[in-house]
Amino acid sequence: ITDGDIRRGILNEIQIEGPVNDIIQDNPKFIVKGQVELDKLIEYRDGNYKIIPVVNKNNVIVNIINFRKLKSYLPIDAVIMAGGKGSRLMPLTAKTPKPLLKVGNKPIIQHNLDRLTLFGIDDFWISINYLGNLVEEFIGNGENKNININYIKENIPMGTIGSLSHVNNFIHDTILLTNSDIITNIDYEQFFLDFIKRDADLSVVTVPYQVSIPYGVLESSNGHIMSLKEKPTYTYYSNGGIYLIKKEILQYLPKGVFYNTTDLIEKLISKKKKVISFPLSNYWIDIGKHEDYVKANRDIENIKF
To answer: Is the link from the previous residue into 91 a cis peptide, with omega within 30 of 0?
Structure first.
């Protein structure tokens, strides 16, 4: 029941003392946790429905989608890789893990969490190793923000995806994996819809990188010049460190060893699985070096989130 139901009841001359069944909405709109039909949810949002309950399999409300505050509600488990040493950022990372370095007025990892929760993601896993206790102390379990945060504690470095082999209780069928040292205003809903539409096994966010050649470039065959391009600019797409993965694909991860996402991509390609690219046109920066950190702090005030 909502305040709108009560107001409409009064306008229809239903008495305040009357039974609630006379005014309650008997066919409410809601979604089931873990069974989100995003097309239906977008239809609700486009229909100007602002508040949508999320219920569990027992029809108990476990969350509320408020489209005044959220852009979407994606059926995804998000994994944030936050275990690296950040060696190239020493001495800044000598006593502070890189995810807790501040960009603007909050740590890098908080930018990640805020962006992901803006799209309604509420099931998180954070993989930690170097100074991981500081990350866990700062972030907590998410209870104060009505999200659920679990920690994957690496005893040894496990690469950019190896630690996922320790998790066997992901809630959703799709896993979003992101490095913790990225600042971006990516539209995660567009990313997810593209992944679903193309029925991919793994999708990689790719970032355009332009290379300008300051000379004329000759294209030749058997010593014969076929064409001449004067000072051309070529655009290449590099790995953006953000991925969507079907949960079933995680079966290809070796258990408990160092393993990178690029290793998984190569394995999937060799097995003829569908690996796709999602070219990014939004802001993106990987804070790997001191100059990247300086740039991110300079850019942050002008990024539209």
So the answer is: yes
190 burial class (0-12, 13-18, 19+ CB within 10 angstroms)? middle
Alpha helices (H) along 206-260: none
Residues sharing a CB contact under 8 Å with residue 155, sequence separation 6 or more, in sequence order? 129
pLDDT in tens, 244-285: 999 999 999 999 899 999 999 999 999 999 999 999 999 999
Read off the tokens for 274: 């569908």
Please tell me whether residue 270 adopts helix, strand or coil conformation.
Answer: helix
C-alpha neighbours within 13 Å on the C-beta side of residue 79: 29
Residue 256 Ramachandran class (φ > 0 left, ψ -120 to 50 alpha, else beta): left
How would you list the strands of the sheet with 77-82, edge to edge?
148-153, 123-128, 77-82, 174-179, 233-246, 202-212, 275-279
Could you tell me which residues come within 8 angstroms of residue 270 by beta carbon, excluding any fewer than 6 positions away? none
Q: What angle do CA 64, 68, 74 make, to 5 degrees?
A: 55
Sequence-distant (6+) residues with CB within 8 A of 40 are 31
Residue type for position 59? N
